[in-house]
Amino acid sequence: LNYSRQAGGKLSDAYQWVDNNNSDEVQVPRTIALYDEGCFKLPMITLGTMNIRKQETATIISQAMQIGIESIDTAPTYNNESHVGAALENTGNMIVTIKVPKRSSTKTQAREEVLKSLSQLQRSRVDIILLHWPCDLIAADMLSSVWKELESMKKEGLCRVIGVSNFTMMALKNLLAGCTIKPALNQVERHPLLPQHHLLEYCDSQGITIQAHSPLGNGSELLLENDTIIRVAQESEMSPAQVLLCWNLQQRIPVVTKFSTEQHGKEAAVLLQSKLLGLSAQQMKAIDNISSFDDSHRFVAPP
Questions:
Q1: How many CB atoms within 10 Å of residue 163?
Q2: 245, exposed or middle or buried, with CB in 10 Å at 0-12, 13-18, 19+?
Q3: 219: phi > 0 → left, psi -120 to 50 → alpha, else beta; which?
Q4: d(Cα 107, Cα 72) in Å, to the nearest integer?
Q5: I need a labelling partner for 139 at 20 to 30 A (CA). Which of 4, 170, 212, 273 fits?
Q6: What is the DSSP string of 95-152?
Q7: How would residue 1 be classed by pLDDT, with cut points 50, 70 and 90?
Q8: 3-state DSSP call for residue 175?
Q9: Residue 218 region by backbone torsions, left for phi larger than 0, else alpha for psi between -120 and 50, else beta
């Protein structure tokens, strides 16, 4: 029996047991097709660049590409876009995600930030543009206006996909009430201490793909040294980080993760190169039980 979530399925599909010849291995695709975006396929593992030091950017990106990473995520607030751009020079196949920062509270500011990011990255277009945080836009009653500007930039060909980041269910409902193009993606913090089941169910119902950032809880001991995670890692002959990545991947949730060391990159490479992932249904359920609705933990707060 296997524990898996069907791509594009409702939350109820995520927790069904399906017979797979009595194997504990789950087949996970390298990419996932975004709802309503036709041929656009998002890699299941994206390289995150938050907190990567400028002098290490080129090395980390080079190592990531060597192990098969095909997608990278950056933002103006990470203060490394120019270094990311230099490292990506002459690498046309990499899928690039940029973000409109929280400080952009008008459509003019949003466009200026996107154009600046494109300049820093040495590109005329990117694949994905996300609104980084909803809170200030909602407080200023500018969410609809700024989103319409993203819709315009998509129509102009500055990107292929528009989406959001760190949007709650309430923020999404606010946005969907007045948009013409739905966000294809909602990148949110998601790990066993913050599973966000209700948000996942709502996004599925609206045709919005969830992408998990901070799947390792920003490297916190609360996750990486959790007794259950360590036990499952030993049972499955994986590292704790691999177990945490698999927990999302086996539910068909793509992840954004950074490789602070070469070893982390090699561990991700194993997952990329494996056609099957091997956390059993019982192990997945044990990891689920780490958290409860009354005991969730968020590692990333609005700046």
A1: 25
A2: buried
A3: left
A4: 25
A5: 212
A6: EEEEEE-TT--SHHHHHHHHHHHHHHHT-S--SEEEE--SHHHHHTT-HHHHHHHHHH
A7: very low
A8: helix
A9: left
Sign of CA dihedral 289, 294, 295, 301: positive
Helix, strand, or coil (residue 31): strand
The pair phi, psi for residue 118, each rounded to 5°, is -60, -40
- pLDDT averaged over every residue in the chain: 87
**Amino acid present at 261:** T
Which residues, 6+ apart, have CB-to-CB distance to 269 below 8 Å?
67, 68
Q: List the one residue out of 235, 56, 51 whose CA is nearest residue 246.
A: 235
Q: What is the largest CA-CA distance in the chain?
A: 56
Sign of the CA dihedral running 6, 94, 215, 261: positive
Q: Of the listed 3, 15, 35, 78, which one is catalytic?
A: 78
Active site residue 202: no
Could you tell me if 212 and 293 are in contact, meaning their C-beta atoms sit under 8 angstroms apart?
A: no
Q: What is the pLDDT of residues 218-247, one digit of tens each?
A: 888 999 999 999 999 999 999 999 999 999
- Which sign, positive or negative, has the C-alpha torsion 201, 240, 44, 169? positive
The per-residue pLDDT for range 232-285, each reduced to its tens digit, is 999 999 999 999 999 999 999 999 998 877 777 888 878 877 766 678 999 999
